[in-house]
Amino acid sequence: MVLAAIVLIWYVGAVWLNAGLVEQRLEQSETKATAAEFIGTALALDRPLLPAPHQVAEEFYDSVFTRDVTSPRSLVYHAEITGSATLLGFALGTVLGIVLAVGIVSWRTLDRSLLPWIIASQTIPILAIAPMIIVVLGNIGLTGLVPKAVISMYLCFFPITIGMVKGLRSPDPLQLDLMRTYSATPSQVFWKLRWPASVAFLFASLKVAIAISLVGAIVGELPTGAQGGLGARLLSGSYYGQTIQIWAALFMAALLGMVLVALVGVVERMTLRRMGAKP
Amino acid sequence: MQTLRTATTMSADAPRPASRNDDKPVAIDVRDLSLTFQTTDAPVVALTNVNLQIKAGEFISLIGPSGCGKTTLMRVMADLEHPTSGSITVNGLSPEQARLARAYGYVFQAPALYPWRSVRRNLMLPLEIMGVPRAERDSRAARYLEMVGLKDFANKFPWQLSGGMQQRVSIARALSFEPKLLLMDEPFGALDEITRDHLNEQLLRLWEQTQKTVIFVTHSIPEAVFLSSRIVVMSPRPGRILEVIDCDLPSDRTLDVRETPEFLAIAHRVRVALRAGHSYDD
């Protein structure tokens, strides 16, 4: 239902937005058109303002299934490049996020001194800082995948830190008192209480983080003039006014994001079931 | 075992109340103990001038209305709170030394099971922390689950158990590392009457079998009279001991003992003592 409504609105929007282009064309060729012809033209433009859903679907199908997956015309090729940067950035961001959270929970001074910096880091627009990261890393010889992964990490560690700080602090006083009566060491309290108690929080933040790290990887591809990746595809599309190509790439990005979030969801369900969560 | 040795040397100078545990060493010795909580508005006096000597093997109930400091007193014994003044020894050691020597098992008001661990692994938690070898952990878990009648539930998770079963797991967990002393803070407070009666009887049998020293916080008079060898009646504002009542019901008693005149007489004494505490308050 929702999908049908969206498609319908999209078609109406496509006709409405492309009307100007169609009128221009009719004026140039000095021909008249019926309403049906008018709409037909509006939905079949080469470079429409807003491509119609079937145009995007066609382009998507073409560039996913009919191209060689190693060719730069294939969306699979671009998705793979962006996907690997996303996963590397996500892995780095997860490690960084957890390390920061553990530090914040374990040392009172870090709690006060680190958190403002972490929050500040997230208020800087990524588009401003991304080119600098790429230049700096390029200077020390890191190009290609790594700078994109770093930008992705920069964006995605934040929800993990916030989630894990909450998770590591989630044990109630009773559970902590219990550890005290056993005179457990701090590391035992961590591994046997704080860490398992935070797992549910960790997965909730991982789902947010993986979506963000995909955005980070795409953003990282924009200012680099990268040859491959969904970001590069978006950029080249907008250079040449290939709106259909842009939309197809956007759909690929959305699909990739959905798959990644679903993967995290599967791992989450398996882990939590092993930890005795209610089915 | 070091704790036991020092406890024996302590008994020489301890006062000797008339009790059938007369010849036993002192397990807990509380002298002139006071504790004041510093809160933001006004200091709260939780305990004043508490004196109490508990012999090894006794079953002591601390009874009194909310806010009389009974839980606080027990938390002091467990080194979870620190007294403002006075002294306390547990098995002849300071509470902190006793805690580090893992001298006591603590059963909280709520079961405090870890939801990500199965019943069996919850029971093994203290054993893991104390570095008990794996084979020994397994056999102890089996033994104590059997003792509380839950061996068929070993691989269930806490949420699959009723409240009463969860509390039995938490008792088994406190027993699993075989402490000499069991501190129980209203362990059956949240349970229904029927489950509570049943667990009371089980606990009594357990106490007879294991000869542990048990300190038991409650605000149920019948529960206290049924279980205890001595009842410590406490009163709030400020928290203090009003009276210590000996309770010498036959050791093989069952729940039926609650209908006997002896039982009712002791229950009456406890009630009178509690009421005396209240008139002070008015």
From TrEMBL, chain A:
Keyword Transmembrane helix listed: yes
Similarity comment text for this entry: Belongs to the binding-protein-dependent transport system permease family.
Segments traversing the membrane: 85-107, 114-137, 149-168, 199-220, 244-267
Signal peptide: none
A GO cellular-component term linked to this record: plasma membrane
Domain ABC transmembrane type-1: from-to ranges: 75-268
Record-linked InterPro entries: MetI-like (IPR000515), MetI-like_sf (IPR035906)
Annotated Gene3D superfamilies: MetI-like
Xref: Pfam families: BPD_transp_1
PANTHER family per the UniProt record, alphabetical: ABC TRANSPORTER PERMEASE PROTEIN HI_0355-RELATED, ALKANE SULFONATE ABC TRANSPORTER-RELATED, MEMBRANE SUBUNIT
Official protein name in the record: NitT/TauT family transport system permease protein
Cellular localisation: Cell membrane
Topological category with respect to the lipid bilayer: Multi-pass membrane protein
Keyword entries, A-Z: Cell membrane, Membrane, Transmembrane, Transmembrane helix, Transport
SUPFAM superfamilies named in the record: MetI-like
GO biological process, one term: transmembrane transport
Automatic annotation (TrEMBL), chain B:
CDD domains: ABC_NrtD_SsuB_transporters
Disordered: region residues: 1-24
Pfam families linked to this entry: ABC_tran (PF00005)
Entry keywords, A to Z: ATP-binding, Nucleotide-binding, Transport
SMART domains: AAA (SM00382)
Composition bias type Polar residues, residue spans: 1-11
Family: Belongs to the ABC transporter superfamily.
Full protein name: NitT/TauT family transport system ATP-binding protein
